[in-house]
């Protein structure tokens, strides 16, 4: 059986250029934006986002450390949000904050809350959580326990580290 290749249109060529959000350039072209015939899982997508955020940090000369990590997290957030706006919602939410097992609401204290990098599924009943780790940072068992307690996650919900 022959497989057809995507037709290059002016719109698809435009996707291969750099797009800007605010003062940040987000590359949404090439392999990330070009949905191939292969199935990309959400885990694959989150991994690709982390890899691209790390590469962006290198291009920007950010180095390592907490400030660079925060900037890379922001880039990953914007890139995943843009990807889903262009190619359809994958059920992934970024930078979701919880307090005592409930979604954090404006007016709630930040103290004791946890912010999750990527959540798959309904926010009140996540199916999967990914935590980006850039540089030397690690997802420790203590942090996983903190995430589970803060977001009210059961032991059946995977909390996975994503390292570029």
Provide an overview of this structure.
It contains five helices and seven strands, in the order αββαααββββαβ. It has helices spanning 10-15, 30-33, 42-59, 66-87, 141-151; strands at 18-21, 24-27, 92-99, 102-103, 113-120, 128-132, 159-162. It has a five-stranded mixed beta sheet, with helices on both faces. A two-stranded antiparallel ribbon has the order 1-2. A hairpin with a 7-residue loop joins strand 5 and strand 6 (128-132). Helix 3 (42-59) crosses helix 4 (66-87). The longest helix has 22 residues, at 66-87. It is globular, with a radius of gyration of 17 Å. Residues 1-27 have low confidence and may be disordered.
């Amino acid at each position: 059986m022959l497989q057809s290749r995507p037709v290059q249109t002016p719109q698809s060529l435009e996707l291969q250029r750099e797009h800007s959000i605010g003062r940040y350039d987000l590359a949404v072209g090439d392999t990330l934006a070009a949905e191939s015939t292969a199935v990309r899982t959400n885990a694959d997508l989150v991994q690709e986002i982390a890899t691209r955020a790390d590469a962006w940090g290198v291009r920007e000369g950010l180095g390592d450390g907490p400030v660079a990590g925060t900037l890379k997290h922001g880039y990953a957030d914007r890139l995943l949000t843009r990807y889903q706006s262009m190619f359809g919602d994958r059920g992934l939410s970024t930078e979701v904050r919880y307090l005592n097992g409930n979604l954090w609401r404006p007016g709630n204290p930040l103290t004791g809350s946890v912010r999750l990098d990527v959540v798959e599924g309904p926010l009140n009943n996540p199916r999967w959580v990914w935590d980006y780790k850039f540089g030397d940072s690690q997802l420790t068992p203590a942090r996983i326990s903190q995430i589970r307690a803060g977001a009210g996650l059961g032991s059946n919900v995977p909390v996975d580290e994503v390292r570029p």
